[in-house]
Amino acid sequence: MIQSDNSNSNTNDHYNIETNKSNYFEDDDNIFISFEENGINISNNNNNIINVDQNNNGINNTNNTNTSNNNNNNNNNNNNNNNNQIFQDLLQKLDKASKEYTNKEKSYPKIEVENKCFNNDFKAKHKYDQVNCRVVKDVDSFRINEELELLPSSYSFKRYIKLKLNSILHLSKNQYEDFELSFERVFDVSSVSSKVEVPSPNAHYSNTNIVSSTSSSVTTSNSHTTANITPINNSNISNEINIQNSATSNDLIEELPSSQQKQNQFRFRNEIGTQCQETTETDYFSAQEDYLNRLKQSFESNTKYIMNDIKYKKKKSVDLCGSFYIENGNFVKDQVNKYQIISGSFHYFRCHPLLWGDRLLKIKASGLNTIQTYIPWNLHQPNGLDSDLDFSQFNLTQFLELANENQLNVIIRPGPFACAEYEFGGFPSWLLTNYPEIALRTSDENFLNAVSQYWQKLLPVLEPYLYTNGGPIIMAQIENEYGSYGADKDYLLYLYALLQKFLGIGQGKEGGVIFHSTDGPSIQMLYGSKLDGVFQTVDFGPTTMDQIEQNFNIQQKYTSSLQPSMNSEYYTGWITHWTDQSAARTSAEVVAEGLGNILSLGASVNMYMFYGGSNFGFSNGANSNSPSDYEITIQSYDYDSPISEAGDITSKYLALREVIEKYVNTSLPPIPNNSTKSQYGTVSFIQAASLFDNLKQLSTSPLFLTGRPLSMEEMNQSTGFVLYETTMNLAQSNQLSVMELHDRATFFINSQSNQGFIQRPYNSSITITYPTTNISSNGDFNLKILLENQGRVNFGPYIHDKKGLGNGVTSSNQYLGPWSNYPLPLDNLSAIEWQDVSSYSKFSTPTFYKAILTINSQDEIGDTFLSFQNLGKGQLYVNGYNVGRYWNVGPQRTIYIPSVLLNQGNNEIIILETLLTNQIINIQFLNYPIFD
């Protein structure tokens, strides 16, 4: 039987396993571990059950046909010869399972874990002691398995897992073996590995041949740190293993100086004059690396298991620097009740970082107390799941610091899906490369695994910037308008659990942050995103007071009357697409009136957008609601916002500021001046270069002689262009078709003759003209197709948007091939071989043009707008910076160039023209934007 070690009754329960049952687990068994409210059941296929009864601290070995107390007594008397046979069998089965899973043979065997502790009163509101079904007060003692993501499914844990039970099942061998059922520990054993032969540290292990349950703990003091590993032997005698460091023995562990413990985490609010009040919280930090490595190596050298990173719990005096939470239907900030959020969306990635400060000052001067931003996954992890996060271009933490310095709260929208009219909705394209059949925005295993690994890197970056830690973040959104897409609760629960793991469960009152969702004001949409414990907000644009009240009534009725009313996307403007008749516009008076109505109800609001910005580079998204529908977002994301794309104060800004001023208790700061705008006039192109002549310099890793044209994703390319090349024959039909073209294909014969283009969704076929020269003796000639990714779909059912020539190119149903594939990301143009424009003649091919804009003095530098009304379609680069797309279909007619991209002296201006076949002479710089 299992006997409890009552000497440790105030901590975890420990059990000594004794049984005479042999071969408990057969080769074809699946192992089922069930955490019940009355204990833990471990069973096999034949319903043989070990029940660890937490109420009476005993074990019942049962069978589907025979249960007897005598068996338990017999087990008690056979602890010498048959010691822990059940768990010896379990070890053997797990070892066999590890080999199978190491070989990726996932069909055999399975270990299933179910937790029935969750119920409607507890779900998503607390963290739990998994064994005893009780709320865990020390939130850090509850750990979600990072490798397996053992998270709630329909309010229970039920997952097939691969021998990685982490904080649920701990097994080792040789020196000691343990069966640990507790989350309160120092180390976690996760995946199985081959034995690591390394020297053990200077530590002594007692009772090396016993099989027992093990408790692990670490205590700290001012002078030393002690690690205790306490096996329970057959006679219930505790044996202690001490590894400690003293003043004379510092070779194992040293305490970290307090100055190294998150030294920058709490400085922000102190800088603006609010002194944090001291309190005590549990903080994790890594102990000295040498000691950790020794302990880890010692454990792994004596077992077949890998130990997770060891972290020490240490009490320290720190500050919960503030509180922002929901209570009695109101937001409460630092004990100030009925706090009203007046927020505006500002996407840091749509504004040059050197201009963040200017935009934030103008936002602050409007009376806003909060800003809201998405965090695009593809921006910060563009190179694959194993890559580090990249903040080199847009430093997120710097943005958060600037917001804090301006005393602006921040609402973050970390995804993983953003929408935002951004390329692929913020998803990285390598998801489609690595998992071609991935089900995005669902509980698809591959998708969840990728999200988990990304968030394990991102969320710890955000945690120090929570408001409760002295930073500006008061709320974090789960997914984005999920009710408009799906209702996969397992997916949402997964995201919620990960957010709680890394950002805390305090909901802004005792640490952590408020978690929220955003959806349209309908029951169906709100249902799609509904999770217990998550604050649900609604979004809608300017409307009547009656409709506003109705929208908030729906929010309150479906969620809870104890939640604040909040519109988290109040639309100040709207999206504009290429080929629209005119740019989207919304009346300043209408927007201001709607805002006043919302605020008069005591509701909170976020205005989307308050500053829109630009879709730099290839970052614009697209919308598609059917296969015949594909709308491309323009380069400008001005959005008719209160602050214009160029950072100017608009009439809408002034109207909104006047409304906001009525609802704030302090006078508003003065409005900063608009930036200088410069009109540099006409500048001539001086050099040109053919894209075809520079394939070697521009193409990354071309792939030759493929049976069909490869997609961008298959070539591990995210954005830009691809050139496809093959050979045709005069005997073939000149009627060419591309099935499932994504997005635009321009055809060229013999690298010169531009045959025109086909474009999604308008057409899929083209008639080419046979060449009369440069034909081989057997009638062969060269065909090139330039493929442009015009922006992956960012919202809707067609978001799985691979780019390329689809299923291939046919000539009267005859597939062409083989193909050469040239990826052209065009992120570096420095290697282009230029010609003087006077001697260049290949204007019918995709052509780079270069001009030099000379600015004589620093005072002449200002924001400017390149007019492309004499251009066709292409890309603009300023001093090597990819500013974005231009296209003569409108309604956008100019591209905003921020002054920070320009220098005194010569400025290199490059365009890639892909549409016009005649020479372009010059370009013009204006001091104002043009939209139809």
TrEMBL record:
Q: Which residues form the Beta-galactosidase 1-like first all-beta domain?
A: 709-825
The domain of life for this entry's organism is Eukaryota
Q: From the UniProt entry, list the residue stretches annotated as the region Disordered.
A: 55-84
Q: Which reaction does it catalyse?
A: Hydrolysis of terminal non-reducing beta-D-galactose residues in beta-D-galactosides
Keyword terms of this UniProt record: Glycoprotein, Glycosidase, Hydrolase, Signal
Domain Glycoside hydrolase 35 catalytic span(s) in chain numbering: 337-662
Q: Which PROSITE patterns match?
A: GLYCOSYL_HYDROL_F35
InterPro entries, A to Z: BetaGal1-like_ABD1 (IPR048912), BetaGal_gal-bd (IPR048913), Galactose-bd-like_sf (IPR008979), GH (IPR017853), Gly_Hdrlase_35_cat (IPR031330), Glyco_hydro_35_CS (IPR019801), Glycoside_Hdrlase_35 (IPR001944)
Residue ranges occupied by any Beta-galactosidase galactose-binding domain in the UniProt entry: 846-907
Q: What is its EC number?
A: 3.2.1.23
Molecular function via GO: beta-galactosidase activity
What are the annotated GO cellular component locations?
vacuole
Supply one GO BP term. Answer: galactose catabolic process
Which Pfam families is this protein grouped with?
A: BetaGal_ABD_1, BetaGal_gal-bd, Glyco_hydro_35
What does the sequence similarity comment in the record state about its family?
Belongs to the glycosyl hydrolase 35 family.
Q: What is this protein called?
A: Beta-galactosidase
- Organism, by scientific name, is Dictyostelium purpureum
